[in-house]
Design brief:
mainly alpha; two-stranded antiparallel ribbon; 8 helices; 61% helix; 2% strand; globular
Length: 269
Amino acid sequence: MAISSLFLFPSQTSLFVTLMSIINMLSLITAGYMELSGKNKQYAKFFDANISTNSRDDADTKLSSRNGMLVFYTPSFLIALVSFIVFTRQDLRFSMIVYVLIIHFLKRILEVLFVHNFSGSMMLDAAKTIGLSYSISTATMIYAQYLCQECPDQPYVDLKYIGLGLFLIGVTGNFYHHNILSNLRKKGSKDYKIPKGGLFELVICPHYFFEIVEFIGVFCISQTTFTLCFTVGTMFLLIGRSHATRKWYVTKFGSKFSKDVKAIIPYVF
């Protein structure tokens, strides 16, 4: 028995899914490497369109950070909702993967609307590119799961309920630490502070740590090659992003930032 058959559905015959698995993982790993090397800072505190080297000031080229984040997540949320109508044949695993994607993106949208505090802006092209990337990945993940329904060669080890538990832990931990971050600033303030509480005592990006846990859970529910590639790529991206975040805090706060606080993995990295 091949080791992959213990945990994965057989690779789909769909050329589209195969190509997207490779492209998705390589693009996310590349983005993670760029974060590590400080070459990709088109998000959050690392980029503000107001100080971009692009001299154009047309309102059409910019979005508020809040609206930009909504462009990131809303299309993927709608794709997950519509998939229940498009794909009428649904087994339990397919339904689970769609539901967790709906929960994931709905949580993101609600956080943007009611939890996060924003102070900057972003370029419209960057927002559209990221939103398109999320949408394609979401649609492909759902389609890959659809192709695996009633597959005669099921994974030998069924991980979907373990995956659901990991997903719920990841979603809860991610929201908890996002809420801590949102409470750091008084309304209208643009000052940054070193976050405290929860796993912030050990790592500067516990929200990314729990997002990785969340997507490991999604993979365990899905057990498809595409979702594995997406999860591995996401791990590399968030590890790179957390490294960039820690470096930013060290630069901004100097000796006030504890060297014992790691980037994303407590006591390790």
